[in-house]
Design goal:
By secondary structure, the protein is mainly α. It has 6 helices and no strands. The model has no long low-confidence stretch (mean pLDDT 87).
Length: 112
């Protein structure tokens, strides 16, 4: 299996896991912030890792920045994202996570 196919398969597994476990349609930042901190951190970590996987297929430098951001923020349970979630309680956690990542590493715009 090629590296790209494996990455895509992994991403699909992650996305499907979100669909079933987080009930993404109703999930808001305020709801996620009621979960235990480790569950919040796991959600953010998986979202950021999925973004890095997509970036790796398009722009390796972007993927590197995203992966480094994950490692830098893991110890704080991704405090920058959780702080942003508190500011926007009605928004979806994935959107806020991606906004924080975009602010740190640049836009998710890939042109082929």
């Amino acid at each position: 299996m090629s590296r790209k196919a494996l990455a895509l398969a992994s991403l699909c597994t992650i996305v499907c896991g979100f669909s079933f476990s987080a009930q993404a349609d109703d999930l808001t930042n305020s709801k996620l912030l009621t979960y235990p901190v480790d569950a919040q951190a796991n959600y953010i970590s998986v979202t950021a890792s999925a973004a890095a996987t997509i970036a790796a297929l398009n722009l390796p430098a972007h993927a590197k920045c995203l992966a480094e951001w994950v490692e830098r923020n893991r110890a704080s349970d991704f405090q920058p994202v959780r702080d942003a979630m508190r500011k926007y309680p009605k928004d979806h956690p994935t959107g806020i996570t991606l906004a924080v990542l975009q602010k740190e590493c640049g836009p998710f715009k890939y042109v082929k």
